[in-house]
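To the wet lab folks,

You asked to see what we're planning to order before we commit. Fair enough. Below is the target structure as tokens, and below that is the sequence we designed to fit it. If anything looks off to you, flag it before the synthesis order goes out.
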């Protein structure tokens, strides 16, 4: 990843983290942005959001050329990203998704959580085998799943804007529509992210082959 792109990802990650975490800093159930059934649901949600924020920021740092150039720092941040961010957040995602009561959320977020764990495990295994090319590819896919937290919040307003001409601007109906769009945005978010990074990975693989042909 180019330095400028890495900086953009980092800045977006920090801003998104601030927006996501702020409503839950007071640990007040009444301030929850999502409907929760009880205090257990709320604190699992807080745990999911807090550790997802850790993953979002630490993962973005891994793309910084200055960090990648320092192997010890890169390795330490990578382990913290997986163990303090991805692992607990993915595990907490599953009950949060199941408690939502929405079938698409249950299927979409649970699938994303399982893929999050699998890609993280494959990235770690590739690093242990010193297959750094595969490690980079799996970590890129893994962070694409992490970045769902950002993409979903971009897609939901876009989906609403697309439907505005057909729905009118009644505040009540728009509120219901926004709620119904959240599961779609959550599912589309990780699908879109994975499609984008897969194209980036394939293009990255083709570059050395093209250079060899031109040599």
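Sequence we intend to order:
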């Amino acid at each position: 990843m180019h330095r400028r792109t890495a900086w953009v990802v980092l800045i977006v990650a920090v801003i998104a983290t601030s927006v996501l975490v702020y409503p839950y800093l007071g640990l007040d159930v009444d301030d929850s942005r999502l409907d929760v059934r009880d205090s257990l649901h709320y604190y699992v949600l807080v745990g999911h959001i807090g550790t997802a924020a850790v993953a979002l920021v630490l993962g973005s740092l891994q793309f910084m050329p200055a960090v990648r150039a320092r192997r010890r720092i890169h390795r330490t941040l990578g382990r913290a990203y997986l163990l303090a961010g991805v692992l607990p957040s993915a595990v907490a995602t599953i009950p949060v998704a199941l408690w939502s009561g929405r079938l698409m959320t249950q299927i979409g977020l649970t699938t994303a959580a399982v893929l999050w764990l699998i890609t993280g495990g494959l990235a770690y295994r590739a690093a242990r085998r010193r297959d750094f090319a595969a490690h980079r590819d799996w970590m890129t896919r893994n962070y694409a799943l992490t970045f769902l937290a950002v993409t979903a919040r971009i897609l939901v307003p876009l989906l609403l804007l697309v439907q505005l001409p057909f729905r009118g601007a009644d505040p009540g109906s728009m509120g219901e529509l926004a709620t119904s769009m959240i599961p779609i945005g959550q599912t589309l978010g990780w699908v879109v992210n994975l499609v984008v990074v897969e194209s980036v990975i394939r293009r990255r693989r083709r570059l050395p082959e093209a250079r060899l042909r031109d040599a």
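Structural context that might help your review: The longest helix spans residues 171-214. The CA atoms of residues 7 and 64 lie 7 Å apart.

Thanks,
Computational group
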